[in-house]
Amino acid sequence: MKIALCSSEVFPFVKTGGLADVCGTLPLALKAIGHHVVIFLPKYKFINTGDFYEIKRSAKDVWTSSLGSAIEVYFIEYDDYFNRDGVYGEKDKDYPDNLERFQFFCQKTLEFIKERAIKLDIIHCHDWQTALIPVYLKEKYASLNFKSVLTIHNLAFQGVFEKEQFDVLKLDKFLFNARCLEFYGKINLLKGGIIYADFLTTVSPRYAKEIQTKVFGCGLEGVIRDRGNSLQGILNGVDYENWDPQSDVWIVKNYSVDNVLDGKLENKRYVQEAFGLDVDPAIPLFGFVGRLADQKGVDLLLEFLSHFKKMEGQFILQGSGDKKYMERLKNLNEACAKKIGVHFQYDERMAHLIYAGADLFLMPSVFEPCGLTQLISLRYGTVPIVFETGGLADTIEEFDERSGQGNGFLFREYTLHKFTEAVQKAVGIFHHTEYFKRLRINAMNSDFSWEASAREYEKVYQCVL
Ligand code: ADP
Fold it and tell me: Taking Cα atoms as reference points, which of 134, 140, 146, 131 lies closest to residue 111?
């Protein structure tokens, strides 16, 4: 099959979160099972020839590069919109012209496919930034005879804009109605994509069910339920070439299941020092890497950390986002510098070191469509402690010391008490060398490679065609 993947983020060119990881790896996995894939993304300011890739001009306003050995990547250029420091905004503020920016990207992508007569079977869009493509395919580009699939990575982001901007979309005004692009008097791009795409996927089976309910549906549960027969949850995989403790070039000591304890101890020592903590292998070290947003459960984490002084363990966090969270974390760090370490930047290398050096990984997300950080942690033998929701519920199984089964710890009621209970259980197991060794091995042997997921996408494409 010939597949075009369109996204606002693709690793290694641009990344603000898991979307980039998925869109940088799924094409490789699809190619590995015999499909032809091309990728479209905007030409942001920072996408330039460098250490990891080369880019060159392909047309007046389109650049190209390649992903892996031979996947063609097209970058849509328009300096007024994309030659900026941010991806979606700067200094905590979204760009006011995001509708214009991503409308342009969607339309230009389809124009380019048409002009070049690129033959496709499927165009696979991701999140609200490319959700207009399925709408355009039916309303403006019906001559382009291919099908669309839209993946929802996080329903909390829908691309909502004021109705006065509807002209920007260059669509018939009639389409601004509640069965189409209107959502309570505003434009909702994701809603348009959900209605128009030939098939919908989201990033875990559990989340596919959750988004059809009022609690998780963010107001779109009815629209999604209407499309329930064309919706499937497919778990994200992890790029096991990039995330591999055996060959990771960023960590201090490489390791595998055979020497996990030695390997992790050296990395642990390094991060304990880097974060200014007491260097002691016997203290359980908790890690967190992620956006500082309500979704990630930072409120509960902060509540937990306010009692942490009296508890056993150390905690290191790397993340950026909401200023109010950064402020409170900074205060906790100042009050408890030997136990709590924080880094408020986006740093790929340090993220690798945290996954390798921590013993346990805290992920009390309020909701989590799939979650990659728990999957990466597993790969590095860092045991996740998660709230049972979305993709976390689908990927983490409670460790049972009697049977030796399970790869982590879950709490099922969203309270400080239950979260603390799960942490205490984990610390108990941490001190039991044999159990913890078994658990670490189970974690590292959990298989979330991309191949199985790519096969699921393949079935979806076939079904659509
Ligand atoms: P999200 O909801 O943000 O997409 P995921 O768990 O799906 O969350 O993916 C997050 C990805 O972003 C992971 O690859 C994680 O390592 C990375 N990441 C998040 N925050 C940071 C940071 N501050 N520094 C480095 N990497 C980060």
Answer: 140
Q: What percent of the chain has pLDDT over 70?
A: 100
Cβ(61) – ligand 1 distance below 6 Å: no
Our answer on whether the CB atom of 351 is closer than 6 Å to any ligand 1 atom is: yes
Q: Is 27 in the pocket of ligand 1 (CB under 6 A)?
A: no
Q: Model-level pTM?
A: 0.95
Q: Does position 51 have pLDDT exceeding 80, yes or no?
A: no
Q: How far is the CA of 270 from the centre of ligand 1 (A)?
A: 21
- What is the residue type of 170? K
Beta carbons within 10 angstroms of residue 60's beta carbon: 6
Residue matched to tokens 């007046």: 60
Whether residue 21 has its Cβ less than 6 Å from ligand 1: yes
**Residue 70 pLDDT:** 86
66: Cβ–Cβ under 8 A, 6 or more apart, which residues? 53, 72, 73
In angstroms, the CA 360 to CA 135 distance is 44
> Nearest residue CA, atom 20 of ligand 1?
290
Query: Helices in 211-359 by DSSP H: which ranges?
Result: 221-226, 260-274, 298-306, 323-335, 348-357
Reported as a single tens digit per residue, the pLDDT across 91-115 is 889 999 999 999 999 999 999 999 9
Which residue, judged by its Cα, is nearest atom 4 of ligand 1? Answer: 18
Q: What is the distance, to the nearest Å, from the Cα of residue 398 to the centroid of all Cα atoms in its chain?
A: 23
Among protein residues, the one whose CA lies closest to atom 7 of ligand 1 = 18
Q: What is the pLDDT of residue 309?
A: 86
Q: Which of 101, 78, 105, 79 is nearest to 88 (CA)?
A: 101
Q: Nearest C-alpha to atom 9 of ligand 1 is from which residue? A: 18
**Local structure of 292: helix, strand or coil:** strand
- Return the ligand 1 atom nearest residue 373 CA: 6
Residue 72 CA, ligand 1 centroid: distance in Å: 25
Q: Pick from 391, 332, 385, 388: which is nearest to 362 by CA?
A: 385
CA of 61 to the centre of ligand 1 (A): 31
CA dist 228 and 74 (Å) reads 33
Q: In angstroms, how far is the first alpha carbon of the chain from the final one?
A: 10
| Distance (Å) from CA 140 to ligand 1 centroid | 36
Distance from Cα 365 to the centre of ligand 1, integer Å: 13
CA of 289 to the centre of ligand 1 (A): 6
Q: Which helix (H) or strand (E) holds 126?
A: strand 122-126
71/310 Cα distance (integer angstroms) = 53
What are the structure tokens assigned to 164, written together?
């006065």
